[in-house]
UniProtKB/TrEMBL annotation:
Alphabetized InterPro entries for the sequence: 6Pfruct_kin (IPR003094), His_Pase_superF_clade-1 (IPR013078), His_PPase_superfam (IPR029033)
Enzyme Commission number(s): 3.1.3.-, 3.1.3.73
Active-site residues annotated for this sequence: 9 (tele-phosphohistidine intermediate), 82 (proton donor/acceptor)
Keywords annotated in UniProt: Hydrolase
Organism field: Paraclostridium sordellii
Gene, per the UniProt record: cobC_2
Protein's UniProt name: Cobalamin biosynthesis phosphoglycerate mutase CobC
């Protein structure tokens, strides 16, 4: 049996502002740093064999202490990054709706197929995440793997594991600093914990 511990990064400065930050970076806010302290205590007794993050500062800041205290090297994976919002990185949806009304209408109409200008569609990000995840699961069949990433990434992972499709992406709420745990038993995924923030 392998176990996936999926952690969304703590609250970043862009999260507080409501800005889209997929591939641009945003440091943790003061609230986020407080969440990290509580997360560290919550995970104290959890067995962890490997730690993966994205290349984003906010994921590495979230899980850095745990990695250091346990002597586990963090492996950074580009494939686990949030969706690339392209030209809309750093903007919020109200700003986009006001200043790019045609593009906003297209976004609503096309849904998961919508590709951000010079960025990705949700389907693009799903395929990227699944490719990365599949490789990791093959490598660690009897290990506990912690993956600290982003809301979209975690939704993609869970949607893939339970249905082999991106279509369940929006069926899960994934809050900042939340912990979701999935056991994979003989290839069969069992969700043990979903979006746990009770420790905060």
């Amino acid at each position: 049996m392998s176990r996936l511990i999926l952690i969304r990064h703590a609250i970043s400065e862009d999260n507080i502002k409501g800005n889209l930050s997929g591939h641009i970076d945003s440091k943790l806010s003061d609230i986020g740093k407080s969440q990290v302290d509580k997360l560290n205590k919550f995970l104290e007794k959890e067995k962890i064999d490997y730690i993966y993050t994205t290349t984003s500062i906010r994921t590495k800041e979230t899980i850095g202490y745990i990695a250091n205290t346990r002597g586990i090297d963090i492996v950074e994976k580009e494939g686990f990054k949030e969706i690339n919002f392209g030209d809309f990185e750093g903007m919020n949806f109200n700003y986009i709706q006001k200043n790019y009304p045609n593009e906003f209408e297209k976004m609503i109409k096309e849904g998961n197929r919508y590709k951000y200008p010079n960025g990705e569609s949700l389907i693009d990000s799903y395929e990227r995440v699944v490719f990365e995840l599949s490789d990791i699961i093959k490598k660690h069949k009897d290990d506990t793997i912690l993956i600290c990433s982003h809301a979209g990434t975690i939704r993609n992972i869970i949607s893939y594991l339970i249905g082999k499709t991106y279509e369940y992406h929006w069926n899960f709420r994934i809050d900042n600093a939340s912990v979701s745990i999935i056991d994979i038993i003989d290839g069969f995924p069992v969700i043990q914990t979903l979006n746990n923030t009770s420790y905060l």
